[in-house]
Design a protein that fits this description.
With about 140 residues, the chain is α+β, with helices and mostly antiparallel strands. About 35% of the residues lie in helices and about 25% in strands. It has a single domain, classed as Aminopeptidase, CATH 3.40.630. Helix 1 packs across helix 2. The relative contact order is 0.14. Keywords: Acyltransferase, Transferase.
Length: about 140
């Protein structure tokens, strides 16, 4: 298994993974819309996408969005997406993607990684095992336009 940064050549498989990720979270399947979205991220370089592959097949991805901490005066990344194909879950691929993202942040001198997840997401155990801390001292708000 290899974890590496995604490239434009990965777009066909990456679009399929993004579509499966969206469907997992209740969105309607739309591979073309997923392809356009991921193509824009790659072209604009406004996110960092890591993929994990076995031979020539992409088996999962994670997508990080840059942000900043005004208090610490340092960059940070928001781990917005983490997905492993259903048949490969529980085999360490998600952990490999998370560890790679953590190493990337260390290399960049970032404060760290932030993520939000569903309260019933079984991956919480993995996050905590890898050193993530649940932030119970704040509320998260979201405004929808």
């Amino acid at each position: 298994m290899t974890v590496r940064e995604a490239s434009r050549a990965d777009l066909p498989q990456l679009a399929e993974l993004m579509d499966a990720y969206r469907v997992f979270y209740g969105a309607d399947s739309d591979v073309e819309k997923a392809r356009v979205f991921m193509h824009e991220r790659l072209i604009k370089q406004d996110s960092v996408i890591f993929v994990i592959q076995n031979d020539h097949a992409l088996l999962g991805f994670t997508q990080l969005y840059p942000s900043f901490s005004s208090v610490s005066l340092r960059p940070l990344y928001i781990l917005n997406d983490l997905f492993v194909t259903p048949g490969k879950r529980g085999t360490g691929l998600g952990e490999a993607l998370l560890r790679h993202a953590q190493g990337f942040c260390r290399e960049k001198g970032a404060k760290g990684l932030a993520l939000e997840t569903a309260t019933d997401n079984p991956a919480q155990k993995l996050y905590e095992r890898l050193g993530w801390k649940k932030d119970a001292g704040v509320f998260h708000y979201f405004w929808t336009s």
